[in-house]
Amino acid sequence: MHSPIFSLEVFPPNTRTSVNTIYDTMDGLKEVEPDFVSVTYGHGAFKDRTRTACIAATIHNEYGFPVVAHLTALYSDEAIVDQALQYFHEAKVAGVLALRGDPVEGNEPCGVFEHASDLVAYIRSKEPGMPVFGACYPEGHVECSCLEEDIANLKRKVDAGATHLLSQLFYKNDDFYRFLDLARGSGIEVPIEAGIMPVVNVRNVETMNQRNSTSIAPALQRMIDRWGSDPKALRQAGVVYASEQIADLVAHGVDGVHLYTMNRPSVARSIWQNVEGLFGRA
Ligand code: FAD
């Protein structure tokens, strides 16, 4: 039996901060031994497009972890994608996570890549050997009328060449298992990693709920009711909750777990200490 994949997501520090602050995050994550680290892409027309590649190079060169660089479609044309792929090559990335991104008010999308699948197909045509990752949504993407329709679109993304899927966060494992059954039933065979975002504060849960309609499990709601005004206790409970989610996912034989670190290495480290033996590393 193969050990499941364990991967991490970090994000570039904002443009007012030195990229070097990523060292604090990565120093804190050194002992976690991820299979890869994914680096998000600042979306929209005015972001510094070199930042993801810069961070990817730092993580690869200084820490020796394989890196998957995110890239978004809506505000990119072919020239922007070609430039990003060039930067990613120089940063020696192990893969690209091709995303649509979300519309930013007041900014007109380029109109070249409408869906993530268009970007996946373009990257595959330019870089046939490059692993291209895609996003998936255990509760369905917010814009989709139902999970089945979203999975049909996900199949298009895989048919366009996505080789690996990373899921949106979820708090109820049963949602992920249902999604997995439907995805496999629709003929999607690529690895699908389960996205876990530890609860670190109430605001963070509310934001995810508003942005992605992530449903809140009764057990999680009880934690928030009890420790919502005690940040330290809620963080500890959040570590336990995420660790239990991960243990159950691994027991179910999932392909892997993708942990959203939110650049909070101490939380990721505490979770890793609870679960590392489940990934065949301890
Ligand atoms: P798509 O796959 O294009 O799907 C978007 C919607 O369109 C869905 O409702 C889908 O069902 C529908 N759809 C897809 N294809 C078709 C089609 N052919 N016809 C009709 N409908 C279709 N955002 C960032 O800005 N930067 C990041 O770094 C980033 N990282 C992320 C990492 C992960 C793991 C996840 C899950 C999300 C991330 N996001 C990021 C957010 C993401 O950009 C948004 O969730 C966005 O709304 C959808 O992106 P997508 O790639 O899933 O889009």
TrEMBL record:
Pathway: One-carbon metabolism; tetrahydrofolate interconversion. GO terms for molecular function: FAD binding; methylenetetrahydrofolate reductase (NADH) activity. SUPFAM superfamilies: FAD-linked oxidoreductase. It comes from the Bacteria. Gene3D superfamilies: 3.20.20.220. It holds the Pfam family MTHFR. Keywords: FAD, Flavoprotein, Oxidoreductase. It catalyses: (6S)-5-methyl-5,6,7,8-tetrahydrofolate + NAD(+) = (6R)-5,10-methylene-5,6,7,8-tetrahydrofolate + NADH + H(+). GO terms for cellular component: cytosol. Belongs to the methylenetetrahydrofolate reductase family. This is Methylenetetrahydrofolate reductase. It comes from Bifidobacterium bombi DSM 19703. The lineage of its organism: Bacteria, Bacillati, Actinomycetota, Actinomycetes, Bifidobacteriales.
